TrEMBL record:
Key word Hydrolase present: yes
MF terms (GO), sorted A to Z: dITP diphosphatase activity; ITP diphosphatase activity; metal ion binding; nucleotide binding; ribonucleoside triphosphate phosphatase activity; XTP diphosphatase activity
Signal peptide limits: none
Protein name: dITP/XTP pyrophosphatase
Short name of one Pfam family: Ham1p_like
Enzyme nomenclature, EC number: 3.6.1.66
Amino acid sequence: MKLVFATNNRHKLEEVSAKLNGAIELVALHDIGCDEDIEETGATFYENASIKSHYVYKNYRLNCFGDDSGLEVEALNGEPGVYSARYAGEHGNHDANIKKVLEKLAGTGNRRARFISVISLMWNGTEHFFEGTVEGTIRHGRRGTGGFGYDPIFQPYGFDITFAEMTLEEKNKLSHRARAVEKLVQFLTEQATGPSL
């Protein structure tokens, strides 16, 4: 089974591919000849994920899914939210984004936060949504060199290390994206084999 992941983000591809365990062949946008930078103009994670999957399905008629994910910090009223990748202005500047979060939280006792991931799957012309979240806290400084984005400052509940200190395998057991992908895989498995009794 081949499925297009509406991204060219190498880190996301690695995370999701590892979760799929070879059961589904995942291809990226550049694999189908799509070099378009699909703009995320939605106001919610659901809207942004939907924009990506609809774009690919409309233009290439291939089963595909798009995702949108980000960090929501309770004391910052849910910021950075849908603006997670460009919170400090420049898209994908992880260092600047982390610095801005830490500066805005300086002197704040409430460090509660969560990562959320929403997947929009276009499957034979019908859209399906899958959501995954992981709760945790924002550390006062960076720790670890793995992962990407806000991983160096996010510590999930029940752990004394950040996402950036975990191996990909460890992170994939509990991350927001992993949880959304598990629901996606369950759906695709049922499509291929029929629902289990």
